[in-house]
Amino acid sequence: MTDTMTASLTELCSASNTELRMLTDPHALADLLAEALDFTEGIAPPTALLEDGRGFTLADGVIAATGSVVLTGRFPDARRVAFLAETHYALAAEEEVHRDLATFLAAANAAGWRSRVGHHVTFITGPSRTADIEKIMVLGAHGPRRLVLGIAPLALLRPLFGDALDSRRKGSS
Amino acid sequence: MNVLRAFRRRAAIALEDRELNDNIRRSTGMTLAKRRRLAAADPDYDELREKVAAIRRESLERRTELLAEATRQLTAAGVQVHTAATAEEARRLVAEIATRHEARLVVKGKSMISEEIELTPLLQQRGLEVLETDLGEFIVQLLGQPPSHITAPALHLNRRQVGRVFSDKLGADYTEIPEELTEIARRYLRAKFLEADIGISGGNFIVAETGTLALVENEGNIGLGTTLPRVHIAITGIEKIVPRLDDLAPLLRILPLNATGQRAAGYASLLNGPAPPPSADDPPTHGPQEMHVIFLDNGRTHLARSRQADILRCLRCGSCLNICPIFRHLGGHAYGSVYPAAMGVLLSPWLLPIPHKGARVWRGAAVSGPGHHPGNSLADVCALCAACDEICPAMIPLSDLILSAREDKGRTAPLMQRAAFRLFGGFTKHPRLFAFAGRCLRGGLRHLPARLLAALSPAWSRGRALPPIPDKSCSETLKREHPTRLR
Known about the structure:
The complex is a heterodimer of chains A (173) and B (487). The model of chain A has no long low-confidence stretch (mean pLDDT 93). With 173 residues, chain A is of the alpha/beta class. The longest helix of chain A has 13 residues, at 3-15. In chain A, the strands form three sheets. A five-stranded mixed beta sheet of chain A has the order 1-11-6-3-2, sandwiched between helices. Chain A is built from seven helices and eleven strands. In chain B, the strands form two sheets. Chain B has a six-stranded parallel beta sheet with strand order 1-10-7-4-2-3, sandwiched between helices. In chain B, strands 8-5-6-9 form a four-stranded mixed beta sheet, sandwiched between helices. The longest helix of chain B has 24 residues, at 18-41. At the A-B interface, helix 3, helix 4, strand 8 and strand 9 of A face helix 2, helix 8, helix 10, helix 11 and helix 12 of B.
């Protein structure tokens, strides 16, 4: 990612109340995984929903133009986690930041759409929200009250997620 | 009753309601301001709008072919596809699915189409618990009201009114803090989501190419309702089908921009079918295991062949409501249809009447097609200011369509009225005759007492004084005072 892309992503995430964390070293990544799902060692699960309301998903990318997290049907539980969690931690690979919705859809369609994304694609921009009472923005309507988006280089993610990451990337390449 | 007379009666009540006027004007104003800022900051906005208009034009032109393709693709993905010609058929389909699953609890995402077919009362009659889960829709459901706006159902209410509803109907401690009110609804509905047997949604768009259902929202209630229950039923109008997957990129950009002034909606779910069957290492808690799509016609095919066909390009963003000076004074309830303002005035008369409510058809003239009668239109309520033309993201020529609906309605007017207008029309075609008739009328009317004049024009004179009858005609005055401006 270029510096301008990072800057624009930072601005967009702040506008949609997404807590963006650029994870450039293994410690930062380890901290996020510990915070998100008490993960300390071994192979991390691609999705997790903890009793206390923390939810974790390994995302399928990020849309740079809107600061949106992309989840797909590769990990069947992802939607349940993303909507039920109180705080949703999403982790994406820096290499999977797509410029905009159009480029993501074109690439997924070229890769065979259904075989690439499974039974859904869900774009998430910020925590759940409502403005149904006097147009006043309230975060945490029915879904997560917080959305934390971690972005880390693929090289850092690979040793932690192993097969999950590889199986997911097969269809996309 | 005549739709216009009913509208006037409701409008008179709405105009007296200060609280209502304030609530509507504040909320629509805030949405418009956010929308305007975002559109103005986007250098490609005009281009985006052209693209969206082209997609929706193509959707309308190729509607039959796209419906067949979408049905094929959805079926191949394991979705059970149904088509319903009428509201009654759609209601029966949903009820049958519910019965088959022995469902007790249904959670609904906000969907205008389920309001159109009045789904909830039917399911309740059959003993089901049906809950609206969008916060605004939940509030109006507790009040027993229909939504007053297609994207902001409780737009007509303020925080104090919502606080009172929650304390009256849910037994919550009274509060008027939006955060606390939202939390009350969240707690109440979260338990319902976890228990629900069926989730019902509408459909923002369906992609024919891939059989993908796109659902756009902010609250996460649609996400929960289409993931936790084992059955998902989506009900959508046949006009919501778009040709290609690529079309979603501009559509998903322009819809939230116009509906709520957001760069992107909180959630855009593109659903390709039911979830894969759970395996040993995969928790069986996520759904849906069964997915249905019901395509509703309900008069749309007939509308597609009419002069107002272009209203089927509508994206349901609500912009033509927010910007309409009449809507901004009255709110949606005055229109007596779930679809108010420009898009509603055009769409509503074509929807089939729901039998149990009795026919809404205006008596005294023939029906032009299934359920539709041009006389049923509220087209004459429009001020033709054309603000909606400018804002419509699908570039629908709304005011032209309303004008054509007025012409259609004019043809159904009583004989005397039509004869009077034909006579007037004849005079306007002959300038000398027109000027002569004008002179005679002015001369004659001047001699009538003011009270008699007022009695002859009751609609005008109510709350207004008639101006004095002038000596000269308008064109004579113009010729004298502005000789250079008149050619």
